[in-house]
Design brief:
single chain, 11 helices, alpha/beta, 14% strand, six-stranded parallel sheet
Length: 312
């Protein structure tokens, strides 16, 4: 998308919303592939917005980071998905781990930035969390978010990416113990789903999916949606034919009234009033089905007395 198309929309939004209360997050794909990223960030700051970045770190050099910071970058997230073998397998690049850890050291040293690391926890790295934490501690990074992988897109057909119920329990218990002992980096579970008894223990606060309520997005093709990985059937409009402000005010009904999710396993669930059908990216909207429920998965295995690191 040409930068001026995106910036034209943010300019229109700033006329009806206070831009100082909004953070624009550049995500991907890989945003560092854009040579004009610093210029876009600078113009966002001129419009009054804060802006941040989610990156795999592969192209983040010292000079590039300085360029972005000078353009007003306020926060950055770098992905690290295991030790070298596991991370490079997931990223399909033999040099990805080295460059990601170098990027993490760079952002950790920049005290102007609010920086953290995210990890996709899967079958190949679930038993390596203590070692990953030790590596991250050596970089100086202080915040670490962990999440599971929703079986959508290419992830749907790769069994090694999905955790079993007992592995999920192990992950949540690992995070809870980390938070109690105030280890560095401080771990937390992402906002992806309702956790039942782990709410308030594996992360701050209580589960609330903000998609379409506090979060909107402009996709690469101009689509107006919420979080970028949500079912494309929930795209609400397109900036090339619609006014973003009007779409935000008058559409997004499936996000703001989620009673349509009270079907199938959710229809009789006693936890529905707390989660309202889980995170929106867990839904196949056209097929009216949920890809999975982390609370149900964790509950089904909470009393199993097997090793939490066993596969499958």
């Amino acid at each position: 998308m040409p930068a001026e198309d995106f910036l034209g929309v943010t300019e229109l939004i700033s006329h009806v919303q206070n831009p100082s209360e909004i953070t624009v997050v550049m995500t991907g794909g890989e945003p560092l592939l854009r040579s004009d990223l610093a210029d876009v960030g600078r113009k966002l700051r001129d419009q009054g917005y804060r802006w941040s970045l989610v990156t795999n770190g592969y192209n983040l050099t010292h000079n590039r980071l300085n360029e972005l910071a000078n353009a007003g970058l306020g926060a950055i997230t770098v992905s690290l998905d295991g030790l070298a073998t596991q991370h490079n397998w997931l990223r399909n690049n033999p040099d990805s781990f080295r460059r990601a850890t170098e990027a993490i050291r760079l952002v950790a040293r920049n005290r102007r930035l609010n920086a953290d690391v995210v990890t996709c926890v899967n079958q190949r790295n679930i038993n390596l969390l203590p070692e990953i934490q030790e590596i991250l501690g050596d970089t100086g990074i202080r915040k670490w978010r962990l999440f599971t992988i929703t079986p959508i897109g290419r992830a749907a057909g790769i069994d090694d990416l999905s955790l079993s119920g007992e592995q999920l329990n192990y992950l949540l218990t690992f995070i809870e113990k980390n938070r109690k002992s105030r280890m560095i980096p401080e771990a937390s579970f992402s906002c992806e789903s309702y956790l039942g008894n782990y709410e308030g223990k594996a992360r701050e606060g209580f589960f609330f999916c903000r998609a379409g309520i506090h979060i909107g997005s402009i996709l690469a093709d101009g689509g107006i949606s919420a979080c970028p990985n949500i079912d494309r059937n929930l795209v609400q409009g397109n900036i090339y034919r619609d006014d973003f402000n009007e779409i935000w005010d008058k559409r997004f009904l499936p996000f703001r009234n989620r009673t349509w999710t009270k079907i199938h396993e959710c229809s009789g669930c006693g936890q529905y009033r707390y989660c309202e059908g889980n995170g929106m990216h867990w839904w196949d909207y056209e097929g009216q089905r949920m890809y999975g429920c982390n609370w149900q998965k964790a509950q089904s295995q909470s009393s199993v007395k097997r090793s939490p690191l066993s596969r499958g």
